[in-house]
Write a structure and sequence with these properties.
heterodimer, A: alpha/beta, Hypothetical Protein Ychn, Chain: A, five-stranded parallel sheet, B: 3 helices, 4 strands
């Protein structure tokens, strides 16, 4: 029987939403789901090599950012890049950088992004993946 | 299994995931299940409340037998058979 598929349109470049995406990826990995992630606009910023580990922006409850980040550290939560990497090691995860999003952040080549990224693609890839997904999320 | 029966179970593999939060215990279980044989029993130690509900559901989806959960002091022992 074919694995179920999760398609994730990842728009956010903030660590709170990226961390949430990492938790969901963990669930998908535990269930051996195939995962397609499409890195859109602000997420492409977070995937740039120079930003991935230094970007500490949060999207929600911004007045509690320091408390939030300290709590993640206290709980031993992995950085979102590590959560994504773990999922890639455990199941079939393909991470596609939207070509337009890459250019918005001056990323023209795959090498401009962290090594989690597998390719640069157009929106047609997302449409094709979403059409056959069992779960389709936008974060 | 009831608590008395679970207390007598000798697990073939023990996974201590008490230092991690969701989805850490589930991923630890996923990694370890590949290292035991069909019919063997694994126990997952977790202090994460969500795990006691996640593991039974995961077992059901993956075809493993959930045996039950023991509450210890500050953590759970979750038993399953591959």
């Amino acid at each position: 029987m074919a694995n179920k598929k999760l398609t994730l349109a990842l728009f956010s470049g903030s660590v709170d939403k990226l961390t949430a995406a990492g938790v969901i990826l963990g669930g998908a990995a535990a269930e051996d789901m195939d995962v397609d992630i499409f890195v859109l606009l602000q997420a492409a910023f977070a995937f740039k090599k120079e930003n991935a580990l230094t970007n500490d922006r949060v999207a929600e409850i911004t007045d509690k950012k320091d408390e939030f980040l300290a709590s993640l550290k206290f709980l031993g939560a992995p950085h979102w890049t590590e959560a994504f990497r773990t999922a890639k090691e455990m199941t079939n995860v393909n991470i596609h950088i939207c070509g337009f999003a890459g250019k918005v952040w001056n990323g023209y080549k795959l090498d401009d992004f962290i090594d989690l990224a597998d390719d640069i693609c157009g929106i047609g890839e997302y449409m094709t993946s979403a059409e056959t997904a069992d779960i389709n999320l936008f974060i | 299994m009831n608590s008395e029966e679970l207390a007598q179970v000798k697990a073939d593999r023990s996974v201590d995931a008490r230092g991690t939060s969701c989805p850490g215990p589930l991923l630890a279980a996923k990694k370890a299940i590949g290292q035991i044989e069909k019919g063997q029993v694994m126990e997952v130690l977790s202090a994460d409340e969500g795990t006691r509900r996640d593991i039974p559901k995961w077992c059901s989806k993956k075809g493993y037998e959930y045996l039950g959960t023991l509450e210890e002091s500050g953590f759970f022992k979750i038993f399953l058979r591959k």
